[in-house]
Structure formats: C-alpha cells, structure tokens
Amino acid sequence: MSTLYREKHSNALLAEPLAEESTPSTVITPSLIGFSNTLIVIPAYNEEKNIGRVLEGIRRCAPEIPVLVVNDGSRDATPRISREHGAKVISLPFNSGYGVALQTGFIFAVKNGYTTVVQMDADGQHDPRYIVDMLQEIQNENLDVVIGSRFLENNRYKTTFFKRAGMFIFGNLASLFCGQRVSDPTSGFQALKGKAIQFVAGEYYPPDYPDADFIIMLHRCGFKTREIPVTMHPSPDNKSMHTGHKTIYYVFKMFLSIIVTLLRQKPKG
Amino acid sequence: MPPRIRIIAILICIFLVAYVFELVRRKHLNEEYSLGWLVTGSLMLILSISEDLLIWVSDLVGATLFTSTLFFSGLVFLMIICLHFSIRISALTNQVRMLTQHLGILDYEKKTLESVVAQHSLEKNPAALEKL
Predict the structure, then answer these.
(1) Taking CB atoms and an 8 Å limit, are A91 and B104 in contact across chains?
(2) What is the DSSP letter of A20?
(3) What single-letter DSSP state applies at residue A127?
(4) Which of A71, A90, A118, B30 is exposed most, by the fewest CB atoms within 10 A?
(5) How many CB pairs (< 8 A) connect A and B?
C-alpha cells in the first residue's frame, strides 16, 4: 500500500522547485480523513533557507494538517517565513536545543487536544510524502509510535563512518532491550499518538538528544512502536547536531542515559 | 602541625566565615547557599584550632602528616559543595527549560488572542479600518 502510494506520487519530490501555479492542494490525500486532530511539529533553528520548501512540501502532501514551527531562538527570518507559509509559530526566547524545542511542540499539542503528532526536521531531510504513510500505519495498526527509518529498506543514505558506527551500536542496543529491530535510532521523523504524546510532553523525556534511550524508554513504558521505511535526503547545509566535542558527549550521554533508563523504575506511561 | 601553617589556616577559615556572613548581610548570597561554606569554614577552623581533634582525624584516615588531614578535609568539603551546586544547577536548568517552553506557548496564545480581538473590533467598528 505504502509503496504503491509512493510510486503514484513520485513526482512530488521535495527538492523540486515549487512554482505557485503548480501547487494544487489536491496532490495527495488518499485518506487523511480521521486525522483532524493531528499536528505536525517542526523544531527550527536558523533554517530560513529550507523551512519554506519544507512547509510547501507539507502543504502539498498533507494540506489539511496544521503545522507548528517551534522557532528555537533563530536569529534569521525563520519565524517570518514560517508564518508566511501558514504555519503556527511558537518562538522560544533563546536557543534551547532540539529536544526542548520539540517538547514545546508536544506540550502545545497536549494543551490544545491534538491526538496525533508528526515530528519532522526543518532542514528538508524528511520527505513529507511519508507523513500520510506514517499516519495510516499508526491508525490502522493501532500503534503508539511510528518511526521513519532510512535504513529499513534501502541503505543508500550516505553518512560519516563515526555516525554510522554510533547508529549501529545504539541501534543494536535499542534492538536488544526492545526485543524488536531498531534500525534508525536517531530518526527525528516520527508519528506519535495518544498517551505517547503526553509522555513526550512529560518530565521523563530526554530534553537534549532524544535517541535510542527514548526508544528504550517508550518500550519499557509499554508503548507499541514500529519502524516504517522512508527516504531521507542529505541535509542541504550538511549540519549535524553531533559535531566536534559534542560527539564525545553524545556517546557518553547515550550510554549513561540507556543504563539509567534500564535501572530506573518504569515511568507511568 | 607547624605553628605557621596553623595560624594561616585559622586566619583563612576566620576570613571565609566572616566574608560569607558579610555576603549574606549584603544579600549577595542566599542563606541556602551560605550553609555549605559556613559549615566548611567552621569545621576547618575547629580542626585547625583543636590539635587533639586533628590527631584523632589523622589516625582515623591514616594520614601521617597533620597538614595532609587539613587539606584532605578541605577537599572533601569542597567536593560536597560542588556536588550540591551541580544538583542545584540541574534543577535550575530544568526550571529554565520549562519556563522557556511555557513562555513561548503563552506568547503565541497572546498574539493569537490579540489578532482575534483586533479582527473582532474591526468587524464591529469598520470606521477603525479606514483610520488604519
């Protein structure tokens, strides 16, 4: 179903220039009915070059779903461009990090009664064509969390050796403790439903780099998670959250977080 | 313990305790954070003054030099204070995070309400639109 759907709409590539006249909001809506209480959350920090394209892509693929951009203290035109593209914009007073911005979106979703949340990145890595796939999967299979994995079907996503090594180690650790395969623990392309949204908005969510530790935490709390294959584009600016000395901290933090997650009493989901 | 190092240690401890008191009096330091410094300064002062106590502690920890006992005690107290600060910083970081998030959401809600009110008042009073 998903593959067929993707082939059908293969022309709706995000990377394509989006001419105004060629953007009918009719491109995709196989079954967005039933997702009225859905919100797309995008944390953004200095993404003026990409955020417009990302929002255009979402408008074409999932026009009915409202989009919330959490501006994480950007110093550029990110909030203005987001508003111009019809997104709700929450601006944090200063740069607080990816996890904090993301969690802000989930707190907003809980406060406003959204029952399903799709989170994606602002740099254009995540292809909005998969939003519908993820929502259908989470609805039809009665799951709590659906994670878009770039390594599940094809393995063409290019990344550095250290990143790949990290993903391999932490992915295998998460797979071991979750009892199911976790191929892409760093994926920020996820759909969450019901109590999983409240869980992310709560105090147990790791506010710096939600990663393999978060997936293990979800599993320990009894949330049903599943990965689905998605295509991810390389980041246009080649930016990464984990560069330089942050890489060492990331590895240390992830090991420590996984250990304490396993030692900690199960949080109430 | 040589008298010179003893006198220096006593003077430093008296200065520390007096300075912390002064900081609290001037409201440059909260009572909560003064506690660790006052306890550290007082205990180090007692250790520096009372030779019997210093000998007893040295025997207890197995130190051959009394000055080592003094340094060791100071180090332990500083470690406790640093750990206390790390715990407080973590709590404050979490509080700042929550405040930041709720401030952002409240600001969004305020702006949304303002635009709704402005639109409503324009609908009720079209003359205001002409003024604009």
Answers:
(1) yes
(2) G
(3) -
(4) B30
(5) 36
CB-based contact (8 Å) between B110 and chain A?
Answer: no
Mean pLDDT of chain A: 82
Query: Domain of A226?
Result: 2-263
The percent of residues in chain A predicted with pLDDT above 70, rounded, is 81
Report the pLDDT averaged over residues A112-137: 93
Residue A96 forms contact with B (CB below 8 Å):
yes
Angle between helix axes B51-61 and B66-124 (nearest 10 degrees) is 90
Structure tokens at A144: 């709590």
Q: Is the pLDDT of residue B26 over 60?
A: yes
- A245, two tokens: 């000395």
Strand partners, A68: A41, A88
Whether residue A268 is contained in a domain is answered as: no
User: What is the rounded CA–CA span in Å between residue B122 and residue B124?
Assistant: 5
CATH number at residue A198: 3.90.550.10
pLDDT score for A234: 79
In a domain, A269, yes or no: no
Q: Is the dihedral of CA B54, B59, B60, B66 positive or negative?
A: positive
Specify the number of domains making up chain A.
Answer: 1
Residues of chain A in contact with residue B105, where contact means CB-CB under 8 angstroms, are 90, 104, 107-108, 111
The answer to whether the CB of A206 falls within 8 A of the CB of A267 is no
Its ipTM equals: 0.79
How many Å apart are CA A230 and CA A132, to the nearest integer?
A: 12
Closest partner residue to A108 among B97, B100, B105, by Cβ? Answer: B105
In percent, the amount of chain A with pLDDT more than 90 equals 50
Parallel, antiparallel or unpaired: strands A190-193 and A116-119? antiparallel
Nearest to A111 among B97, B103, B105 (CB): B105
Q: Are A93 and B100 within 8 A, CB to CB?
A: yes
Residues in B touching A91 (Cβ below 8 Å): 104, 107-108
Q: Where are the domains of chain B?
A: 3-131
Burial of B3 (0-12, 13-18, 19+ CB in 10 A): exposed
Determine whether the interchain pair B107/A91 forms a contact, defined as Cβ–Cβ distance below 8 Å: yes
